[in-house]
Fold each of these.
Amino acid sequence: MDTLYDHMPILSRGRHRNPRKGACFMELASYLAGERWSDHPACTHPLLAGLARLVNDHTTDEGRGRLVPLVPSIIGLRGDDLRIDARLALRAVTTALPVAAADRQLALAVSVLAAEEMLARLDGRPAALEERSGWAFAQAPHAAEAARRFSRASKITEKGFRRYAAPNAVQLSVVGIAQACVPDPDGMLHDLLVAAIAECEALIPRARPGADAATAPRGTVNAGASGRPA
């Protein structure tokens, strides 16, 4: 029996002029949300949308079909709270740091500290590594030590974090995972996007008119056998 997904544009890399040419993840989201065809629709937080575009473009053609059921869950996730940007950046860099090539790890570790510092500042508390960040640092101790020594995270402005630091952290993370020597980078990218959506859902109260008909199953992210914190 046909499903909703059988009648949607096929996911592929990059931007597309119209649905007949295919779609990237966010173009498909704009289609389902009833917005003008765009890879930058208004229905999704800009950084989450940026992560989705990067995951779409760095997932193989064989693995990209797994992303399709996640598209409806991204619709309506939008807000101005800078904690959203910080949480998304932190989720991305703590996922990438343990598996990325050594020459990327210092920048990722610095990004961990920047996100932690921003969250602490927004919450009005002293900066301290959360459990997941501590676990990620333990997997890359040399990069962590260097990051602590040289980081200027405390000097990042809120505007600079939103405009530059967070998007750069997300991009570096996705590329680092895609190029990592791991058995299933597609799976890691998929799970990162699932976790990022969950981070946003925890922070953004939302009503999603029109999205219920396309509700998709979402995976869960557990520690599993690797001992990785959720």
Amino acid sequence: MRSEPTDFVQSVSRALRVLEQVAQAERPLPVKVIARRCGLNLSTAYHLVRTLCYEGYLIRQVDGTYALGSRLAERFHELVGSFQRPPSAATVLRHLAAVGGHTAYLARIAGDRMVVVEVVEGPHSPWLEDLQVGLETAAHATALGKSLLTTLPRRALRRILSAQGLRRFTRDTPTEVAAVEAELRQLRPGDVVIERGQFRENVACASVVTPADDPVGWWAVGVSTRGMDLPDQLLTHLRGAAADLGRPGRT
């Protein structure tokens, strides 16, 4: 668990809780519901909602309920645009998805998070809602995350696993740090990391890391497939994509 900073600003935290509750709701929410879900008194909730509306992060509907505003979409596009990518990333991923028909992913470590920075969908892979651009990957349960974890010293590895938590996605998901460490001890940066059924039932994924310029450190390129079979040819294409990604001058 992360410790609360000494200069923690409660009003900022409350405003973010309001945004999270509105974002997670299936329909726009009235202020009374927002206040109850966020554990706020009604007066505070009104002040926060009005401020967020003024700044464009919420909008007030004609019936008095509140939904997300366009400013959030703008911030998301700015976030995606801020991700550093190899110059050849889009070309390499499109080629990888085309030759095998499987979805191709690019991920990196950002702070203590594993973040997906590029995705090219393929028809032979399922759509994985948690592996989309701008989202954190589950480092302990995905091939992308595990391949990146192989590049870290033990202290950094444990810090990241502690910060993200070891959520159980399937019955095969490792939920103990020791189990993840034991698996990673068998691997080295650049090995093909394979995960079967740990992130989604009846889905297999593979990933390889390739060095990148600082401050990124490493890129992970991966693929997913329906079922547990990862054909040798697909893994060959994956290795080739990782090599192309780290090759300077390719566009």
